[in-house]
Every structure is written in C-alpha cells, then in structure tokens.
C-alpha cells in the first residue's frame, strides 16, 4: 500500500495536497494539510505533519520526512513558500519552520 485510507489529507480553502499515489509513501498516521505538493519516490513517515494551511509547501523527489517531523509555514502576506528540495532527508522529530 502506498496511500493508506487512515492517512489524513485535509483540503484548506478548497486546496488539497498533491501527492503521486504510485510512488510516494505516506504513513498511516501522517497528516498532510492544505497546499502541499510531494514529489515522486518521497516519503512522509509516522506521526509527521506537513502544514500548508496558510502558504505553500513543496517537497521534492526522493525526499524523506522522518518520524514525528513537522513542516510548518509562515502565514504572513508576502512570506516565501517552504521548499524542500530533491534527495533531502529530514530527521525524526525535526521542526522545519518558515
């Protein structure tokens, strides 16, 4: 299984996460919220949260978001989006905050 039904994908203001269901792995307990794009062959592991509820988050290909990590955005008008590139590993319990 690549995308597990218990995984939380949440649309915000009618913008839903964009994930390649054939190659990305999203753990059953992960949360992916709002304007989030996850590239091919990337993974979001257990209890991690990717929050694109106020600005865009882009995660490249072959990128790993470790267990319990949080990727959070800045909500202030004009702030930069959060871009995590290709071939990046974000360790467990990491907080990435724009």
Features:
11 strands, four-stranded parallel beta sheet, 98 residues, mainly beta
Describe this structure in words.
The protein has no helices and eleven strands. The protein has strands spanning 8-10, 18-19, 25-26, 31-38, 43-44, 49-59, 64-65, 70-72, 82-84, 89-90, 95-97. The strands form two sheets. Strands 1, 2, 4, 6, 8, 9 and 11 form a seven-stranded parallel sheet that branches. It has a four-stranded parallel sheet with strand order 3-5-7-10, with no helix packed on it. 28% of the residues are buried.
Using the CA coordinates, give the radius of gyration.
12 Å
Give the overall form.
globular
Strand content: 35-45%
**Percent in helix:** under 10%
Describe the largest sheet.
7 strands, parallel
- Unreliable spans are none
Number of strands: 11
Give the assembly state of these chains: single chain
- Structural class designation: mainly beta
Mean residue pLDDT: 88
Distance separating the two termini: 31 Å
Briefly characterize the structure.
This protein is mainly β and 98 residues long. The chain contains no helices and 11 strands.
Task: Show the helix and strand layout.
Blueprint: E1 8-10, E2 18-19, E3 25-26, E4 31-38, E5 43-44, E6 49-59, E7 64-65, E8 70-72, E9 82-84, E10 89-90, E11 95-97
Parallel strand pairs: 1-4, 2-4, 3-5, 4-6, 5-7, 6-8, 6-9, 7-10, 8-11
């Amino acid at each position: 299984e690549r995308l597990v039904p218990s995984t939380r994908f949440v649309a915000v203001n009618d913008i839903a996460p964009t994930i390649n269901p054939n190659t990305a792995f999203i753990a059953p307990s992960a949360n992916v919220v709002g304007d989030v794009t996850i590239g091919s062959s990337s993974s979001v592991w257990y209890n991690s949260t990717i929050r694109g509820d106020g600005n865009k988050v882009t995660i490249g290909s072959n990128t790993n978001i470790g267990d319990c990590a949080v990727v959070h955005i800045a909500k202030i008008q004009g702030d930069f989006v959060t871009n995590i590139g290709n071939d990046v590993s974000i360790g467990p319990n990491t907080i990435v905050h724009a």
